[in-house]
Design brief:
150 residues; mainly beta; Lipocalin; 10-stranded antiparallel beta barrel; 10 strands
């Protein structure tokens, strides 16, 4: 076991996410469709990183996995995402005062998400936006996370 497999203190704000969650939401491209799924967050390598796994019970939404880490020269965290479509993206992330954000800027496809943590960490209301040209933003995936276990 590596001596580097130890808690990263810069990831401490993400502790509130640890556990299993059910998700319910919607997407503007599927009006009237309720999207149900699940997500989990757990420490990787004793807290050196945080691992997120997501699933939505709908054929148009891929299962995804992300790992959160930090760079000592940056104030924000990094989230590296990968899904079953073989899509790979890097997001910048913060979690401050019960507001969890992650975003990416790309000329062809930018995204930003804001999650409000409520009910003493039992609920997260996540709203997403996307931009295909970096100028005009439109609604994207919205999810309500409800904690099922720690």
């Amino acid at each position: 076991m590596s001596k580097a497999a130890t808690k990263n203190p810069a990831l401490k704000p993400l502790e509130v996410l640890i556990g299993k969650w059910k998700t319910v939401g919607k997407h503007p491209m599927l009006p009237g469709v309720v999207l149900k799924g699940k997500a989990s967050f757990k420490w990787h390598k004793k807290g050196a990183f945080l691992l997120m796994q997501t699933h939505i019970d709908h054929k148009d939404f891929p299962d995804g996995i992300a790992i959160f880490g930090t760079d000592d020269s940056e104030k924000e965290m990094s989230m590296i995402y990968f899904d079953e479509r073989k899509v790979s993206r890097t997001y910048t992330s913060t979690l401050k005062k019960n507001v969890w954000k992650w975003w990416r800027k790309d000329k062809k496809f930018s995204q930003r998400f804001t999650g409000k943590i409520k009910d003493n960490g039992k609920t997260i209301e996540l709203k997403g936006e996307m931009s295909k040209n970096g100028k005009r933003w439109e609604k994207d995936l919205e999810l309500i996370y409800t904690r099922t276990s720690k």
